[in-house]
Structure formats: C-alpha cells, structure tokens
C-alpha cells in the first residue's frame, strides 16, 4: 500500500485522531473541520486522547486560529472528557 495515497474520512459528527501520525493531526483536523462545516455541522467532537496533552494543545491552537470556530471545550464525561474536544462551528 502506498503511504502517499489520500485517505477518505467519513464526515460525521466525531473524528477520532488516534489512527493518524502526530505530524498529520493538524492537517487532518483542519480538512475535517472544513468539510464538516461545508456539510452543515454546527458541532463536532475531535478525539485526541488524554496522554500528556500534546495533541490536545495542538488541536486547541488550531481551533483558536480559525475565525469560524465559535467555541471549543472539553467533552463531557460520556464523550471522552479532556480526551476529546467539542467544537462549535459558525454556520456557512
């Protein structure tokens, strides 16, 4: 299998970032958020894991830089707590 082939990600209300390499996380998350917004989602959840918080910080820096992200916070306990970030997107 060629590692350079694009991966199709279903656009749903949740994206689990665990399958991706650390260096891919920001780009994958950005592309997902753009498509989720294009599909009309106003709220999505990014699962980045708990760990040391490196990916959580990376994701939150990305979210803070996007003008069309209205808010973001930790998911509730049933949604992964601080291992997931819930993102509120501005309408298209």
Any overview of this molecule?
It contains two helices and four strands. It has 92 residues and is α+β, with helices and mostly antiparallel strands. It has one domain: 2-Layer Sandwich (Ribosomal Protein S8, Chain: A, domain 1), CATH 3.30.1370.110. Strands 1-2-4-3 form a four-stranded mixed beta sheet, covered by helices on one side. Helix 1 (25-38) packs across helix 2 (54-64). The longest helix has 14 residues, at 25-38. The chain starts with 13 loop residues before the first strand and ends with a strand.
| CATH C-level | Alpha Beta
Structural class given helices, strands, pairing? alpha+beta
Strand content: 15-25%
Proportion in helices? 25-40%
Report the sheet with the most strands, covering strand number, pairing sense and barrel closure: 4 strands, mixed
Q: Please count the helical segments.
A: 2
Shape: globular
Q: What's the architecture in CATH terms?
A: 2-Layer Sandwich
Number of domains: 1
Q: What would the average pLDDT be, to the nearest integer? A: 91
The third-level CATH topology is Ribosomal Protein S8, Chain: A, domain 1
- What is the C-alpha radius of gyration, as a whole number of Å? 13 Å
Arrangement of strands in the largest sheet: 1-2-4-3
Tell me the series of helices and strands, N- to C-terminal.
EHEHEE
Number of strands: 4
User: In terms of per-residue confidence, which ranges show pLDDT below 50 for 5 or more consecutive residues?
Assistant: none
Distance between the first and last residues' Cα:
36 Å
């Amino acid at each position: 299998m060629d590692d350079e082939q694009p991966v199709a990600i279903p656009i749903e209300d949740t994206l689990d970032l665990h399958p991706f390499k650390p260096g891919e996380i920001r780009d994958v998350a950005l592309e997902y958020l753009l498509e989720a917004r294009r599909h009309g989602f106003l709220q999505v959840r990014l699962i980045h894991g708990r760990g040391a918080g490196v990916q959580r910080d990376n994701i939150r820096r990305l979210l803070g830089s996007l003008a069309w992200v209205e808010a973001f916070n930790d998911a509730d306990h049933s949604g992964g707590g601080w291992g997931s970030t819930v993102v509120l997107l501005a309408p298209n």
